[in-house]
């Protein structure tokens, strides 16, 4: 809905408890929710909203597109913890969105032979670790990364600034179709949405959020690749930049990131493998969940404690949104955990695990 973005969706879900309850609520109740005024409340309850939603759903079913709301178990876990996570994703493909290892590879649309060679060599050397390769399906480094991934039998996801049914640029349609067999296409835009300048930066945040690390192969002093690097730094992801010739326009961005300590210098694939601990994790299964999280607590308590394992401290509003437990019930739950000595309260309605 126009004017109802991720922040308001979080508020609505937190206060009402579910999407269904939002639409069952009265306008008077909705107005009491912070950020929801009379105009927005009336817009939410207008009958055209659900009619339009039904049309979108029918179109997705016809196209074979999955709708992943952020409460869906299939929603990417790496995105769920972000403050600006897209509420809804549209997904088409076969890849595991929660793959054990992911790497984002982005760069300029005006890629050089040097950039192509670095991209292909990097992906070839990462092949033993079977990572999910993420990029933006654009000209230059992006499409090179997708094609090199396919050539090496690695799953690759194209994050789009349009609906999943509108391939942009159209020239990459064949590659996009090939990606569906092993990787896939992902977007926060409903089917039929055409690419627009304002949607590309938003697309870049998804690339950064899905990635354990992001490598900028070639980039000018300004551009989408640097925006992706900025998001990755904000999300505490590892960022790498390939150094380039001082007089080369499309190395200026990478050299700048390195100079300003916003990216590690990339010299060889081992730089990424070691920084992400892929060498240590190779061949090892994930450790089992601690018994206290699954045996000694209720299902909802275990759900909250699992979130504390992902992040040191949480504001109660954010915790309510992530766990989908209404604030009233969550407050009681946290108090109980505090009595047990598991969590402690902090100033500003924050909580931390002991």
TrEMBL record:
Residues 292-349 form the DprA winged helix domain. GO terms for biological process: DNA-mediated transformation. It comes from the Bacteria. Residues 68-276 form the Smf/DprA SLOG domain. InterPro entries: DprA (IPR003488), DprA_WH (IPR041614), DrpA_SLOG (IPR057666), RuvA_2-like (IPR010994), WH-like_DNA-bd_sf (IPR036388). Belongs to the DprA/Smf family. PANTHER family: PROTEIN SMF (PTHR43022). This is DNA processing protein.
